[in-house]
Write a structure and sequence with these properties.
The chain has ten helices and twelve strands. By secondary structure, it is of the alpha/beta class. The chain has three domains: 2-9 and 189-278, Cobalt-precorrin-4 Transmethylase, domain 1; 13-92, Rossmann fold, CATH 3.40.50.11270; 94-183, Cobalt-precorrin-4 Transmethylase, domain 1, CATH 3.40.1010. The N and C termini lie close together (10 Å). The mean pLDDT is 94.
Length: 280
């Protein structure tokens, strides 16, 4: 069986930057998981004594706080800064951009529509930058636009890891609902590249392995895309979740990985699949 890696996969710029920042600040604590990958977080804890706090109350007890790649709500960041703590901001620049857009456009009197998962930390942070949260709305489906008290002027941004085609459906619907629609495509380029590469490989593969955190939005999107072209597509976090039965009778195994998946985990999975294939 042949094993082929997607032409683009794994760590994006924002994640590489966040890992480097954490490694440069040993003994600090991240506010929320730095990235959506438990194995990498464990490595940072064991090798660099990087702690983890899950809420503002826990953050108050730390001297140095690393802000996760997804960012945190504006008011919480302001409160931590006011305490005089050492704040190391590892928020991905591609996440900072929609935060700034929401803040600016809401000040200019636009209703704000955010395309994304309202429970995702990135979206919670972006939403908090609206001047008036009563005039900001988070939607995932076109139907969720129905009945929203939108102004005649609307600005829309997207979660960095969503599918462009789904974003355009929301944009198209908004154009029929408002006189002025400002569209800001805040989907990350790395997301485009990884998704396109995964789709191309999935079209040819007999089985696809997508490696990444089960709670990672971009990894779940990759898995969904692969499933469209290769029914036998599996999402795993590490080599321990591989099932030898997946590879029986297969000629081509494709591999992709989410933006929070380090190369060392990908290599472990490749090595394990080679063992499985070679053991037959």
């Amino acid at each position: 069986m042949k094993i082929e890696l997607a032409s683009s996969y794994g760590f994006c710029y924002g994640v590489k930057r966040a890992i480097r920042i954490a490694e440069e600040n040993p003994g600090s604590a991240t506010y929320g998981p730095l990235i959506h990958n438990k194995d990498e977080i464990d490595r940072l804890r064991e090798s660099f004594d990087i702690g983890l706090v899950q809420n503002l109350q826990e953050a108050h007890k730390e001297d140095a706080i690393v802000i996760r790649t997804h960012g945190i709500p504006k008011n919480e960041l302001k409160e931590l800064k006011a305490e005089g703590k050492k704040i190391i901001n590892a928020t991905c620049p591609f996440v900072t951009t929609p935060q700034q857009i929401v803040e600016r456009m809401s000040k200019e009197g636009y209703s704000i529509v955010i395309f994304g998962d309202r429970n995702h930390p990135e979206i919670k942070g972006v939403f908090s930058y609206a001047e008036d949260e009563r005039d900001a709305f988070v939607v995932l489906e076109e139907s969720e636009l129905d009945g929203l008290p939108l102004k005649s002027k609307v600005a829309i941004v997207a979660q960095t890891t969503r599918k462009p085609a789904d974003f355009m459906k929301i944009v198209a619907a908004l154009i029929t609902m408002a006189k002025e629609v400002r569209v800001f495509n805040t989907i990350c380029n790395a997301t485009f590249e990884n998704q396109d590469a995964a789709a191309e490989l999935a079209r040819r593969a007999d089985v696809m392995i997508v490696i990444g955190g089960k709670h990672s939005s971009n990894t779940k999107q990759l898995h969904s895309i692969c499933k469209n072209y290769c029914q036998e597509s599996y999402l795993i976090e590490n080599k321990g979740e591989l099932d030898p039965a997946w590879f029986e009778g297969k000629k081509l195994c494709g591999i992709s990985a989410g933006a929070s998946t380090p190369d060392w985990i990908v290599q472990e999975v490749v090595d394990e699949i080679e063992k499985i294939a070679g053991g037959r």
